[in-house]
Amino acid sequence: MGKNPPTFVGGAVVNSFQGMVDxxxxxxxxxxQLTKEGFGTVWLGATFERKAFNxxxxxxxxxxxxxxxxxxxxxxxxxxxxxxxxxxxxxxxPFSDLFFEKNISTPLNAERMxxxxxxxxxxxxxxxxxxxNQQPWRVITHGNLVHFYLKRTPNYAKNLNWDIxxxxxxxxxxxxxxxxxxxxIKYAIHLNSKAEVIPGLEYVTTFEVEL
Length: 211
Ligand SMILES: Cc1cc2nc3c(=O)[nH]c(=O)nc-3n(C[C@H](O)[C@H](O)[C@H](O)COP(=O)(O)O)c2cc1C
Hints:
Radius of gyration: 18 Å
Distance between the termini: 45 Å
Bound molecules: flavin mononucleotide
CATH topology of the largest domain: NADH Oxidase
Helix content: 25-40%
CATH class of the largest domain: Alpha Beta
């Protein structure tokens, strides 16, 4: 599999907020699986030729993103992959900008982070890819509940007619879930009416974790 012609993987989904969240969630699982198998992948949200796929779409559906799939030029070892993850950590917002405890006014600072039972899984969220690395995810942990919110980037991606930051939230949710699964922790994902209503943030979903 070479660079030319490139191989793509993509998917279509109903153009709604929940559709985009679901797409991000599922597509990130596919991407991570391909990565695990040794393929190089690149999320492409805006910059690919959509017209070629129009015939495949049903009414109301869009293709929020595709990924190029190929063998990387320099087959990376596992050690290199983890080293690259470390590099990514530097490109992310600090933990305390993204994650909170009990309410939005209590950031998970270094001290609280050490005591919070979800920190390990939130770190996987922090490493998640997002459109132009905006990292629009905000998470509040409250007891055994973990609430996910979207903080929109003002005036972002206005030229797109689907909600790319909702896709980012789906990706973040998959990263958190992968962490829980890895540790065989049981949970349910559902909308929770007790989630705080926060001006400027959009509530997305809640993990209720069995502790
Ligand atoms: C939904 C989505 C759409 C993206 N679209 C593009 C794109 O069109 N072009 C591109 O080069 N990268 C795209 N990316 C990749 C992001 O720019 C990248 O994940 C982010 O900058 C973080 O990069 P890093 O994980 O290497 O730090 C997209 C990522 C996501 C999640």
